[in-house]
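Q: Okay, next protein. This is HTH tetR-type domain-containing protein from Nesterenkonia rhizosphaerae. I've checked the sequence twice, so it should be correct. Can you predict the 3D structure?
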Amino acid sequence: MSTNRIAAELGISPGNLYYHYSGKRDIIRDLLAEMIDQYALHWEQGGHADQGLDLEHLRQGMLRGGELAWRYRFFGRELVALLRADSELAAVYREAYQHRMAQWSAAAEQLVAQGLLQPRSPLADLTAAVWLVTENWFTFLEITGEADRPEKVSPEKVAAQLDVVFAVLEPHLSPAARQLWKDLDRNEA
């Protein structure tokens, strides 16, 4: 996308855009910083950092995270190229990734401590699998043609990522947690 198109989408002149940014690289860096801030706010507001994390909060958090992923979907679509083109952006992204994975790992450890999660493989692998599903859900929808236009993405398509997350988690959930997940799924439907 050209800076002229970005300026047109914003309803400003290209000169005004260049007053604030020296080019697309600066715009992308600012958008990444905004995305990182939004995910941090989402994590704090969702109560994920509290000791009271449970499957219901986890599911709701994944749905809200899906909304953020949609908002910043171009990062998922262009991530590899963006990171290869800008080492500073890559460093910031990787630092944010490490931080988020540490948060996800802590949340998984809480679920293990509560007896809801009984990992049959290393917890780091399970956490990575869930992260891969949630981080790449919209890229998957675009690849399959289900999200080629924003208006085609329904709340049901966003929520469908939970079905895939459940498929990953199910063998690792306690019987009570498995039933709770299914009950939450029915209630949301």
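A: Here is a summary of the prediction. The CA atoms of residues 83 and 89 lie 6 Å apart. The chain has a mean pLDDT of 86.
Q: Noted. On to the next one.
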